[in-house]
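call fold(seq) -> tokens
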Amino acid sequence: MAPESASLAATLSRFRKIGIIGIPPLDVIRAANEHGLVIHDLDEPLVREDLETASPFLPRVYCAILRTAVVNALHLELDGIYVDTGPGKCDCALHTATILAEALPIPVICTRNTDTTGYGTPLCQARLPLIARMQAITAGVKSVAPYQNPPPPCSPTAGFWGVPPRDFSILELFPDTTHIYGWARCMENKTPADHALEATFNPEVPTVFFAQSFCAKTALARYLAKKHPHALYLDVDVHTTSSARAKVQAFLELSGVRP
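ret:
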């Protein structure tokens, strides 16, 4: 066993429950799986606490995902937290890790995920409800198991490009034949730093380019939306507003896309 692997295994052997922010390297997830640890994805809303409880630690101009991660870290019983601060996440995640390391009595460990081995993207291209597929993709970050009996691909009628939204309700508006692009596709492929894959889109289908408000990826979302011949650029903060829902619904209907 390599020294790094031995050190990782020794650290994780002392833990029972860990939190992750972003997507730590597969070596971390694999070791956590082997030790039977409970993994909490802190990017998802896990506790019933006001998002404003993150305000003493992060400014409101940080994205709702990182603010959610802080709220979870403050209220969940964890033995340690692993944060991806590599090219697949953002500098804000690094600063969040620094702040949490000072605020919490548990180890907050920075990692850099540069994994390049692709697992494939069957869920991104399947004919299934978009919410169910996005939930499966986000849940997949807690395991290194290969996909078993992946669903067959379908021909796309619409596209959703971007990160998994904090509020999944916006995904209800899309047809089952929506293909997923952007960082969410990188998540399923387990290569979060694959910028070429993240920038891929299909110019043949109407596509919503989505990012969380205040996320650095809003720049890429807007840039790609301008290049796409039939696109809607959209950013949403904490909750999906009626205005955001109306924009998506009108865009899809005017594009001839049926739910």
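Strands lie at 17-21, 38-41, 80-84, 108-111, 158-162, 178-181, 207-212, 231-236.
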